[in-house]
Amino acid sequence: MTRQPFRRDGHRGETLRFRFDGRDYEGCRGDTLAAALLANGVRTVATSVRLGRPRGVFAAWTEEPNALVQIEHPFPEPMLQATTVELYDGLVARGLPGKGRLSGGADPARHDGVYAHCDVLVVGAGPAGLSAALSAAGSGARVVLADDRPVPGGSLPDTAETVDGVPGAEWAAAALAELDGHPDVRVLARTGVLGYYDDNYLVAVERRGERASSRERVWRIRARRVVLATGAHERSVAFAGNDRPGVMLASAARAYVNRYGVLPGRRAVVFTANDSAYAAARDLAAAGVEVAAVVDVRRGGGRSWDGSEVLAGHLVTGVGGQEGVSSVTVSADSGGGPAGELSGGSAGGREFEADLLLVSGGWNPVVHLFGQAGGRLRYDERLGAFLPAATRQAVEVAGAARGLSTLGRCLADGAAAGARAAEAAGFRAGHRPAARAEDAPEAPAEHVWLVPAADYRGHFVDLQRDVTVADVMRATGAGLRSVEHVKRYTTAGTAHDQGKTSGLLTGGVVAHLLGVDVAELGTTTFRAPYVPVSFATLAGRDRGALHDPVRVTPLHGWHVARGALFENVGQWKRPRYYPRAGEDMRTAVLRECAAVRQGAGAMDVSTLGKIDLQGPDAAELLDRLYTTMMGTLPVGAIRYGVMCRPDGTVFDDGTVARLAEDRFLATTTTGNAAAVLDWMEEWLQTEWPSLRVYCTSVTEQWATVALAGPGSRAVLARLAPGLAVDRESFPFMTWRDARVAGIEARVCRISFSGELAYEINVSAWDGLALWEAVQGSGAVTPYGTETMHVLRAEKGYPIVGQDTDGTVTPADLGLDWAVSRKKADYVGKRSHARPGDLRPDRKHLVGLLPDDPDRLLPEGAHLVATARLPEPPVPTLGHVTSGYRSAALGRTFALALVSGGRERVGERLYVPVGADQVPVTVTRHVLYDPEGARRDG
């Protein structure tokens, strides 16, 4: 067990034991994992994702790009920042190479969510945020203060600054206690706001700890006014070796010394372009860290410094060491470069022995949430950063988030913002005096993006993605001029830190390379989430069947009682098959198929989508949406139809029955019922608002029983003695109203099996009575969806979504007959005339017969032309869409989409399955009763 050799004297608290990368360590209560690792002298925490370079702790909070870890115990959690993981006894973790893995075990944690409303939401509990919350609370407004840290104060615990004469951390604790005393104030610690949406709707995630009943909680907050006091992030500079362990942001080193009592190194060099790093150098020196030199790129230097040597007008040109910093090379700037560009170091240079290099290239206000809210940004030349400008939302920005750099100004600005927010929400704010702090004068900063060199492969702009200045140069050299394009070309800013340390640095380098102003270049788009969030947290608590709505038909209880096994189709529970004693699925399905082909079977098809269309223009709407002519249907007739997207590909299929001159009933596939209704409404409301049509879903108003098989006519005749069921009186694709088993019903002569068949529709209330009457005839076998799939596939009837994808047209499926040549137009018609839709090598729906009649082809398997596969990439001719065993055919068969398939009938192709090349023969897609003689009995 190691003993924290880098723990500052007097800062030990309760000892906690943890394991990292297989070794046992000790830390202290209040540490983050990063702080505890630094206290134990662990410099390499992870390796980089692309280059495998060692990476150490670079920052102190959510802006950390390097120190990614995977928690193994007590709960599995991948890809967390060691800087935000609170240390607790028994923690087990390991470093990651820039990417993690999901645990194979179950997560025992619970996640939940809550909705909240408030008058004023303050994001950030730093100096400005606490001041804003105090001001707003004093007005009587309902206030929510959300901050992602465990304790309030923002940067105050990281510094030695005082507020109202007391240490900043003490003032923050007192402010929090005062807020807790207000009955209408809610303080959410450990709560990071992830997204800012329209109408002041914000989403936050609260980390509740490993011992809480729910580990994380999603807060969905609607606020009348918002104050963003999100602070600022320190940024780095691109120089050679700036990714080595031991290179750290100056503010982060200051935080580890003051907040955690940890020495991040023994001997440091400070590299800065502004005054803030001098305060960090003082605090480190006071804690016992030897500061070898302060390297200031400004020729006039900065604040007075009575410590080590200040090298004004110098820059860091190299970092020595393999696993971490061991030396720093400093050279004088040769002078004369434009803003953002140093001219390069003079020959030679001085080398300082050091194990720590602190960097401060400037400060970036945290404007991510403001950008998500639709706010525009403006570039401030003095600060060298983008600041909030105008926005359409009811939001204030305060403190460092809008570019203020001193404590006193942030305190006053936060108090004023909180008062304005409360007044805008309808409350009278008091005149509470703002807390005070002494602000030291500041010298102007210099805005530096990179240190020039002959080779930029070691100048990193994005540490998480291993993006270097050389990568950015390749992007601009390829002609990219937009920072958004460069981001996607290089992946800079796309990792877990979302560009917090790399975004503006990358933009500055791009602007320098292109010779344009950073203001002209702009920024990339800020998108939620601001910090990473797990899918489990967003999904919320597992509520079992309540997690996703479950829809059941009126016959569901009967199916359950008869032992049916179900499958989920479009949220519906549909019986898949009805096993008898000793039957597996294969045996049961073959039995059910034989019963339908040889006698009579019944299936619950109540889940089919049903849309009632009424109005004088209903026929016109259907003619425009279906490839088939629907307006010529006589009352009492039914027609099959296909819907296409504008690109000509199949969207859905079904039937349309004409109930009256101005009324139709359209059926859809089970899974597409809602989508088809939405499709109809979209065209009606956006393209054809003049059409007088009303579309109403009636799916759940009807229970439907499909009665199929050569014996179905006799069964229906017994159940409906008043209905003429002979072929001439009741032809295919017509419907009749009748009493079936004494129940008012609409009977349709429709078949999805190729057999003589009927679909009997009754009120949902009468569905069970009808089904029991059908089953009570003694000659009908219930069958499920698996049997239905086999029966329709034997006949070559495609299922949209299984035998189709986003490229298939009606012609590809052999449905040319369902495409009207007489209609002037329909959705997709023009696309069907494109040369690409008429190519002979398009994929066609065909049948496949394996040489081995017992070999079942897996759906999704590819087809190739030869038994011996060539070297990858292997050209494929298509893929298997459906594969089944057939009782009627006495063998296995499949349907497939094959390039030029109709011209390949009779050809031998091969299906790679594991190590086998399964030989198959291409056939027409209709394998059973191709003449259709069985359809009419």
From TrEMBL:
InterPro entries in the record, alphabetically?
2Fe-2S-bd_N, FAD/NAD-bd_sf, FAD/NAD-binding_dom, GcvT/YgfZ/DmdA, GcvT/YgfZ_C, GcvT_C, GCVT_N, SoxA_A3
Location of the Aminomethyltransferase C-terminal domain = 843-929
Specify whether Oxidoreductase is a keyword of the entry.
yes
Q: Which Pfam families match?
A: Fer2_4, GCV_T, GCV_T_C, Pyr_redox_2, SO_alpha_A3
Domain FAD/NAD(P)-binding stretches? 119-374
Q: Where is the SoxA A3 domain?
A: 459-541
Q: Which UniProt keywords apply?
A: Oxidoreductase
This entry's Gene Ontology molecular function terms read: oxidoreductase activity
Q: Which residues form the GCVT N-terminal domain?
A: 555-823
- Output the PANTHER family linked to this UniProt entry: AMINOMETHYLTRANSFERASE (PTHR43757), AMINOMETHYLTRANSFERASE, MITOCHONDRIAL (PTHR43757:SF2)
Q: Which family does it belong to?
A: Belongs to the GcvT family.
> What is the protein name for this chain?
Sarcosine oxidase alpha subunit
Annotated source species: Streptosporangium roseum (strain ATCC 12428 / DSM 43021 / JCM 3005 / KCTC 9067 / NCIMB 10171 / NRRL 2505 / NI 9100)
